[in-house]
Structure formats: C-alpha cells, structure tokens
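STRUCTURE:
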C-alpha cells in the first residue's frame, strides 16, 4: 500500500471480507469537544458501533500517515494534545508529506473513505456556509460530499451556519439531504430547521436500498442522512439562537476567521450553556453512530 496510507489489521480484514465498517472523523475529537469529554465520547462511539457487530474506523493523520482504525492510545493522544492540526482537503497532502499529525474534518475523512473503500460514515454535524460576518466562509465539507461516494449519517448542518444557504448549495451540488423519520431537516442541537426534506426514510433498510441503488446507477457523491437529536436532549431554537448571535459578535471582535470559526463557536456556546450544548453534541454523535 501507498506509504502515506495505513489501515489497521482489523480494518484491512474487514475490507477484504466485505464486513460492515463505519468510518468516523477526528476533528470532532480535537476541535469539536474539550478534554476529557472528547476522549470518552470517541471511545464510546466506537463501542456503540462494535456492539452492533460493525467495525469502527476512526480516521486521522498520525506521523504523516492517513490511518483508518486508530488504537485507543492514538485516540487519547489526539484528545489530549493541544493545537492539533485541523486537516481538510486543502492541507491533507502537505501534512502527509511533512510527517505531521492531525485530525481530519468531514472533508478529509471522506477522502480517506474513498481511498480505503469505506462507504458509511458517521459524524455530528457537517460544515457549510457560515453566516455573513462580512467575510465568506464556506466549509470544504460540502464540496467533498459531492466528490466521495458515501452514506454520511449526521444531524444536519450545524445550527451555527446559514442553514438555508447550506442546503441550497448541497442541492446545487446534487447531494440528497434525507430526513430520518420526520419531515423537516434537523440542524444539530434542534430537531426542526423549518426546512422540509424532499426525501424521508424511516429505517436503516431504506437507507441501504438507496445507497445500493445510487451505486448501481453510478451516481457519484454522498447521500446525507440527517438524524434528529432525541427530544430529551434537544436545545430549542429559541434558546440557542440568541447564544449563537452572542458568540458571533465575539467572533467578529476577536477577528477569528477560517478554520478557527467552527471550533470557536462550538466552544463559546458550550460555555454559555454551561455544557448543555456539549452534552447534546455527545448524544447526537452517539445516536448517529448507532444508526
Ligand atoms: N461534528 C461535530 N463537531 C465538529 C465537527 C463535526 O459534532 O467539530 C467538525 C467536522 O470535522 C467538520 C468540521 O468537518 O467540524 C467543520 O469545520 P469547518 O466549518 O471549518 O469546515
Ligand atoms: Mn472555513
């Protein structure tokens, strides 16, 4: 295999035997949650997948190798290390060339899925078009979703984004945004974005059928399954929206831009909600892994 790519023995065997595998990203560990919740959640999410007889394959860049299937120790290191590099489509290759260690975003993880032959991927919320702070910030996630051929299970675009613009561009790129067991597309912390999904699925079998049909029709690009957060953990729009606005103002005054925007907003909102938004984020990634 290419010297820049490495699959754990378990992942290699599972790919060879066509056993079920779910890929997981690692920026949610390094940048999406604080320590120790990030470490605990990453390990729990893997266990949830294993309990169903499926192999989890967390993807990250370790010492210049794009790896599928991290050891628990590698996960702990990513969770504890300060200033881990956030690798997306634009800087993954240079990280590999220079022997760096970094966490992969949804976009970079999808590149890994294509290279390793993994077709199912679970995350919390995808990146998208940020709201207008006078500067344009568009996540590479949405473009990579149109290039890889995976089923991505998430809880929709993050509510910190301009959700309707994000859905517009996903539609332009031909990425189906499918709602799970409800009519509206969810957006991360809350269940109803106010935007109706054109396609609704009600069980995993339907998701698999759609996955296979798209594959047979050679339709490239991912299908996005948006699984709403459970009612018990939902943070309603009325409550979270003023906090997003408050965090955005701080973003502007602190001149935070580019790839620091998403981690900054998530951290601030966790602070304002005294950890409740973090708890919701933990519950939604667990639910997406289970699905
Ligand atoms: N889902 C979460 N928390 C996160 C992310 C997803 O619940 O932190 C990460 C993913 O790695 C995603 C990234 O790709 O946020 C989006 O970052 P940006 O907007 O800079 O592309
Ligand atoms: Mn950006």
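SEQUENCE:
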């Amino acid at each position: 295999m290419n010297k820049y790519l490495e699959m754990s023995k378990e992942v290699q065997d599972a790919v060879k035997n066509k056993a079920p595998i779910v890929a997981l990203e690692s920026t949610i560990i390094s940048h999406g949650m604080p320590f120790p919740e990030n470490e605990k959640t990453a390990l729990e999410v893997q266990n949830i997948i294993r309990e169903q007889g499926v192999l989890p394959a967390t993807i990250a860049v370790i010492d210049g190798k794009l790896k599928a299937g991290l050891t628990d120790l590698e996960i702990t290191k990513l969770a504890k290390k300060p200033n881990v590099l956030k690798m997306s489509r634009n800087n993954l290759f240079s990280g590999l060339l220079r022997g760096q260690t970094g966490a992969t975003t949804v976009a970079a993880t999808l590149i890994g899925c294509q290279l390793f032959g993994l077709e199912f991927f679970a995350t919390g919320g995808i990146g998208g078009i940020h709201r207008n702070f006078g500067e344009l910030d568009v996540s590479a996630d949405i473009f990579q979703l149109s290039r890889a051929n995976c089923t991505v299970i998430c809880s929709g675009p993050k509510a910190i984004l301009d959700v309707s613009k994000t859905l517009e561009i996903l539609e332009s790129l031909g990425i189906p945004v499918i709602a799970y067991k409800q009519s509206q597309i969810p957006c991360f912390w809350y269940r109803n974005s106010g935007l109706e999904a054109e396609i609704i699925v009600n069980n995993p079998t339907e998701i698999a059928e759609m996955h296979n049909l798209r594959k047979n029709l050679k339709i490239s690009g991912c299908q996005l399954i948006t699984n709403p957060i459970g009612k018990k953990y939902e943070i309603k729009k009325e409550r979270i929206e003023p906090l997003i606005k408050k965090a955005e103002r701080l973003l502007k005054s602190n001149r935070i831009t580019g790839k620091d925007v998403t981690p900054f907003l998530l951290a601030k909102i966790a602070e304002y909600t005294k950890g409740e938004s973090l708890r919701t984020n933990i519950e939604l990634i667990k639910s997406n892994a289970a699905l």
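REMARK: The pocket of pseudouridine-5'-monophosphate (ligand 1) is lined by residues 25, 27-28, 31-32, 105-106, 123-125, 127, 139-141, 259, 262, 266, 281, 285 (CB under 6 Å).
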